Amino acid sequence: MKKLLFLLLLAACAKPEVPFTLTETVIADGFRFTEGPVWHPDGFLLFSDIPADVVYRWSEESGVDTFLAPSGNSNGLTFDSGGNLVLAQHAGRVSVLGTDGQLTALASDVGGNRLNSPNDLVYHKSGVLFFTDPYFGVKAEDRKLDYSGVYRLTPSGELTVVYDEFDLPNGVALSPDQSILYVCDSATGKIMTFDVDADGNLSNPALFAVIGEMTSNGGADGMKTDQHGRLYTTGPNGLIVFNADGTEFYRKTFDQQITNLTWGGTAGTDLFVTSRDKVYRLR
Prior knowledge:
Shape: globular
Number of strands: 26
Oligomer: single chain
Strand order of the largest sheet: 1-26-25-24
Distance between the termini: 42 Å
Number of helices: 1
Strand content: over 45%
Radius of gyration: 19 Å
Low-confidence stretches: 1-16
Order of helices and strands: HEEEEEEEEEEEEEEEEEEEEEEEEEE
Helix content: under 10%
Structural class: mainly beta
């Protein structure tokens, strides 16, 4: 009996495995509303300040400077296969930044109707780009679409709506093998999964998890996965990490709304998290 009680006590006191330290560091602050972080292979972080209409750059050596302004009120950022920066812009476009410093629209309308407010985006290895298009910041009288869609953009430029049952689709992420697409809904807190085939076609939408409805502290937002298939998501309850089977693995609260996140750093093991006015690093 004593041995059993001892084993139970050990189990209760055992610390769960966590993928990073519990203490975050503020690496930059003083912004209006930061979003869409992405790590550049040359060793610096890019992130959007949506209302400031700027993409900022941060590095350990140089701190913060302006990378792109205006940015079309960019939100999510990613790179295409050629290393070009691609931006989801609240101005109603998804655009690519050319080597000449000019922005070229990849998508701006569907069926002749202006997109709402492209929010987050991710490339599949097939070359297909998935992005979300809620109506954040768009006045009701200016909306041309009566839904908020999840879109599939092919390398040839064909744009199609692949899901339109979210209220406010937001973050998107792919599993490590890119066979699963995760998309969250800020309004309801639902995270859905879709099977992805080799050509970037979606099927079998299914509920993965629910992290809570939108509050004054934000809603379900940016997402990323790690090499173990765990899903990291920002939302009204801070940072939540799920195992690949949808069970909760880890949770961390912040003192303000956090919006998005990305992996980066020298070894790729730093987690950068954006918030209203700060950018954090968790190592």
